[in-house]
UniProtKB/TrEMBL annotation:
Transmembrane segments: none annotated. It comes from Cytobacillus eiseniae. The keyword Glycoprotein does not apply. The keyword Transcription regulation applies. This is DeoR/GlpR family transcriptional regulator of sugar metabolism. Coiled coil: none annotated. Residues 8-63 form the HTH deoR-type domain. Keywords: Transcription, Transcription regulation.
Length: 73
C-alpha cells in the first residue's frame, strides 16, 4: 500500500475514533483537532458516511451510527 494511502486510512480511523469518543462533534472541531483543511475532513467524512459509520443529525454536526466496528491496528 502506498504511504499516502496508509496515512489517509489512519487519519480516517482516527477521525472515526474521535467522533465515537466525543459523541457529537462539529466539522470545525475536527478541522481544529486534526489540523487539516475543511475539504480534507469532508472527504474523510464522506468515506465514513459511505460505509455507514457516521451520520450528520444536523448540518455540520457528526455522530457515529449503530454499526458494529471491529478495530485493528
Amino acid at each position: 500500500m502506498k504511504p499516502s494511502t496508509n496515512r489517509m486510512l489512519n487519519r480516517i480511523k482516527s477521525v472515526y475514533m474521535f467522533i465515537n469518543k466525543h459523541g457529537t462533534v462539529t466539522t470545525g472541531e475536527l478541522v481544529e483537532e486534526f489540523g487539516i483543511t475543511p475539504r480534507t475532513i469532508q472527504r474523510d467524512l464522506n468515506v465514513l458516511v459511505y460505509n455507514d459509520l457516521v451520520k450528520s443529525p444536523s448540518r455540520g454536526k457528526w455522530t457515529t451510527t449503530k454499526k458494529k466496528v471491529k478495530m485493528s491496528s
